[in-house]
């Protein structure tokens, strides 16, 4: 029975790892669509969302079944609770990638407002945070998870910088407002992806060390 339960835990672990890879791919495609102005990539992101949503439901049901039937304790219980939480965070990362794609499709109907510099840099950092929080989960590495948390302020600073720059465009020329607002919304989506990477990192720390580090930061995120 113990060997069977361990195989089930390993199966769930593999499912979460696969879901993380899929979420990372969605971020990459969404931003590639924006930077390269390729509408077909935005459509790919929306197709991947259906797969991610299906995986989300399957993983939750799988984990809940193990909780109900195996009555795990200690490290196994922490793993299952963490897997359910990370599963939800990865689904929300996918939602943000879809939001980026939707705003990109609106932007592609008009000429570019400005060269994209800070937004791709912000996307690169947010994607890196997701990748490294995911790696921390795979490696059970609380130190790497703590490093992800420390990166969050950089994402927030870039979002503020992008907002200030786009605000000057909107004030100077009202015809730029729709495009500027779409870019601001994309920066907000990227900020949320960074927040979700932090949440995953916090969950990893709980799983590995049994330590809840959420509350010192809870006033920062909605």
Give me a quick take on this structure.
With 222 residues, this protein is mainly α. It has helices at 2-36, 39-70, 74-107, 118-139, 142-150, 152-172, 177-209.
Description:
This protein has helices at 2-36, 39-70, 74-107, 118-139, 142-150, 152-172, 177-209. The protein has a single domain (2-217), classed as Phosphate transport system protein phou homolog 2, domain 2 (Methane Monooxygenase Hydroxylase, Chain G, domain 1, Up-down Bundle). The longest helix is centred in the first third of the chain and has 35 residues, at 2-36. Helix 1 runs antiparallel to helix 4, helix 3 (74-107) runs antiparallel to helix 7 and helix 5 (142-150) runs antiparallel to helix 7. With 222 residues, it is an all-alpha fold. The chain contains seven helices and no strands. The N and C termini lie far apart (42 Å). It is elongated.
């Amino acid at each position: 029975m113990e060997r069977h339960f361990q195989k089930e835990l390993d199966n769930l672990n593999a499912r979460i790892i696969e879901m993380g890879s899929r979420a990372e791919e969605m971020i990459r495609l969404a931003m590639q669509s924006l930077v390269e102005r390729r509408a077909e990539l935005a459509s790919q992101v929306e197709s991947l969302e259906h797969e991610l949503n299906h995986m989300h439901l399957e993983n939750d049901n799988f984990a809940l079944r193990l909780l109900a039937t195996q009555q795990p304790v200690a490290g196994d219980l922490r793993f299952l609770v963490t897997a359910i939480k990370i599963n939800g965070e990865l689904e929300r990362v996918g939602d943000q990638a879809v939001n980026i794609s939707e705003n990109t499709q609106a932007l592609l109907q008009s000429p570019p407002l400005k060269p994209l510099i800070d937004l791709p840099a912000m996307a690169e950092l947010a994607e890196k945070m997701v990748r490294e929080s995911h790696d921390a989960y795979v490696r059970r590495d609380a130190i790497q998870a703590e490093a992800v948390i420390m990166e969050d302020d950089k994402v927030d600073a870039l979002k503020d910088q992008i907002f200030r720059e786009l605000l000057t465009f909107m004030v100077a020329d009202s015809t730029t407002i729709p495009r500027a607002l779409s870019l601001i919304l994309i920066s907000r989506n990227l900020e949320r992806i960074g927040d979700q990477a932090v949440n995953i990192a916090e969950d990893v720390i709980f799983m590995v060390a049994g330590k809840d580090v959420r509350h010192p930061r809870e006033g920062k995120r909605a």
